[in-house]
UniProtKB/TrEMBL annotation:
Top-rank taxon, per record: Bacteria
Gene3D superfamilies: Hexapeptide repeat proteins
InterPro entries the record matches: Hexapep, Trans_hexapeptide_repeat, Trimer_LpxA-like_sf
One Pfam entry name: Hexapep
Organism this protein belongs to: Candidatus Phosphoribacter hodrii
The protein's name: N-acetyltransferase
SUPFAM superfamilies documented for this protein: Trimeric LpxA-like enzymes
Length: 198
């Protein structure tokens, strides 16, 4: 499948865009960014220098993914989400000089396969968003999110579990959780959730 790039998008020639991906109006994809196959970059979204995205990722309108973020396969980033990249941001040095690119060390957000970040959330680097987890809209993530966790709030805290379908799991008792949509069973142990083996 061909790559689709809107005429108003700004895609660096050094960016690598996977087959079947689409980049919509006013989006910017910087140098050395790598997008997998079938990715969608929404209107006005930003993909920073050297950001790496897996296959089938979606960045919704005006999402800001600053380098050195890493996204696995099937990651969803909602509208106006922001991934930060600086521990202690300042425009100037202590003596008032404008900071340059080599005056700070970039830190990134890592999103593992299947993770979803709700609209207008902020992920404060460095954090890892676990596999198939769900960050509720408007959350501020300041610590790692476990696999399959449903987190919400400022700062974000785990309020439940979700399965691969993205819907909250039902407590089946004795550490077992069930997806009401697919019937898949999950096992909770010591604050982590794993898929039950068939």
């Amino acid at each position: 499948m061909a790559v689709r790039i809107a005429s108003s998008a700004d895609v660096a020639p050094e960016a690598i865009i996977g087959e079947g991906s689409a980049i919509w109006h006013l989006a910017q994809v910087r140098e050395q960014a790598v997008l997998g196959s079938n990715c969608i970059i929404g209107r006005g979204a930003y993909v920073g220098t050297g950001v790496v995205m897996g296959d089938n990722c979606k960045l919704q309108n005006y999402a800001l993914v600053y380098e050195p973020a890493r996204l696995g396969h099937g990651v969803f980033v909602g509208p106006a989400v922001c991934f930060t990249n600086d521990h202690f941001p300042r425009s100037v040095t202590p003596d008032g000089q404008l900071k340059r690119g080599d005056d700070w060390e970039a830190v990134g957000v890592t999103c593992l396969d299947g993770a979803s970040i709700g609209a207008r959330s902020v992920c404060v680097a460095p954090v890892t968003i676990g596999r198939w987890s769900l960050v509720a809209a408007g959350s501020v993530v300041v610590k790692d999110v476990p696999d399959f966790a449903l987190v919400a709030g400022v700062p974000a805290r785990r309020i439940g579990w979700v399965g691969r379908a993205g819907v909250p799991l039902t407590d089946g008792g004795d550490g077992q959780w069930i997806c009401p949509e697919t019937g898949t069973a999950y096992i909770e142990h010591d604050g982590t959730l794993t898929e039950a083996t068939p």
